[in-house]
Amino acid sequence: MALLAFESSTAVPSAISDLLSPAQRMKTAGEVNAAILESLSQGKEAKLVALLRLLCWGETLLDERAEFPKVCEILDDGS
User: Fold this and answer.
1) Helix then strand then coil, % of the chain, to nearest 5
2) Greater confidence, 20 or 28?
3) What is the DSSP code string of 2-67?
4) Which of 6, 36, 66, 68 is deepest in the core (most CB within 10 A)?
């Protein structure tokens, strides 16, 4: 509720000012997203996160056997 109760960060009491830090906001957002996904029977993390982990795992295995353009290299060249 503190995030909604104050217009500016200067008016926030020191007892709850830590709740407004970017790190705490990211932590809270992650917990809320996990709770929403779990309530929808989707697991605790987004499917994209799992797919990226799978991609990294596959690239690591393939890197031991062949040379190929990795996803991060392709993205770096395109921007």
Assistant:
1) 70, 0, 30
2) 28
3) HHHH-SSGGGS-TTTGGGGSHHHHHHHHHHHHHHHHHHTTS-SS-HHHHHHHHHHHHHHHHHTT--
4) 6
**Cα–chain-centroid distance for residue 33?**
10
Mean of pLDDT values over 45-71: 83
pTM: 0.45
Q: Which structural domain range is residue 56 located in?
A: 47-78
Sign of CA dihedral 30, 33, 35, 37: negative
Q: Is 57 within a domain?
A: yes
Q: Domain tally for the chain?
A: 1
E-state strands within 7-77: none
d(CA 30, CA 12): 23
CA separation for the pair 12, 2 (Å, rounded)? 8
